[in-house]
Amino acid sequence: MKKIIFLLVVFSLVACGKRGPLVPPESLVPAAIKDLKVDQKGSRFLVCWSPPAKMESGGKLAGIAGFRVFRREVLPPDQDCEDCPTAYHLLRTVDPEYLQDVQRAGSHYCFYDSEVKTGDTYQYKVFTVDADGVSSRDSNKVRRMKIASQPPPNLSALSIPTGVVLQWDPVRVAPGSTLQGYAVYREQEGGVMPLFPTASLPADSNSYEDKQMEHGVKYVYGVRSVVRTGSDTAESELSNLVEGMFLLKE
What is the CATH number of the domain that holds 141? Predict the structure, then answer.
């Protein structure tokens, strides 16, 4: 009898072989997104994030099937319930192969959320879905209140031997708001204006000289005023567009 028990123990050890460390199931999902960001530009929110490159375990992420962006309206403290099942609703499903109104800006995916109301506060989060349909944990959560959009500057352009100078009059903002500065946007003629500014200037600026131009290429410029209301900062709508070109003097 003792011999039989001994043989069974030996057989079980051989059959099992060498086992590695156990991997928790929760680590076999895409790593959570940590750089979700929401900015107000004019009357819209710009929602941006970059995709994870790894699994929660640290291993390489084989593929991404898409992203799911959720939004909830933040209610007064006595009514708010973030953990309630109906708090968040699916705002956008993003397929990397068919972006539609979603844009790529470097490594970031971005889209405009136009369905926001002045004075209301919203909270966002995003999930990554891998090629097997497995979803990541919550991203970082971003909360923003939409503030009243302030006026953009009135822009003009002047060509000089070294490039182009943009000029504008100081913007007057509404009482209770503070002018923080200006954001300059630039794109080659026929292109799409970028989502992020080429240059950010302080509030006492009323001009910008662009020296980073290619000879003979026409550029289109726009400027947004940057205003703080309470603890929130927002850019205005884009100003009127002006053109400029750098031509070498012979």
Answer: 2.60.40.10
pLDDT digits (tens, 9 = 90+) for 168-203: 999 999 898 999 999 999 999 888 999 999 999 999
Is 171 found in the same domain as 113?
no
From the number of C-beta atoms within 10 Å of its C-beta (0-12, 13-18, 19+), residue 191 rates as exposed
Give the number of domains in the chain: 2
Domain end, chosen from 86, 118, 145, is at: 145
The pTM is what?
A: 0.85
Give the ranges where the chain is alpha helix by DSSP (H): 2-16
Beta-strand relationship, 218-229 and 232-235: antiparallel
Domain of residue 162, residue span: 155-245
What tens digit of pLDDT does each residue of 160-175 get?
877 889 999 999 998 9
Burial class (CB in 10 A: 0-12, 13-18, 19+), 214: exposed
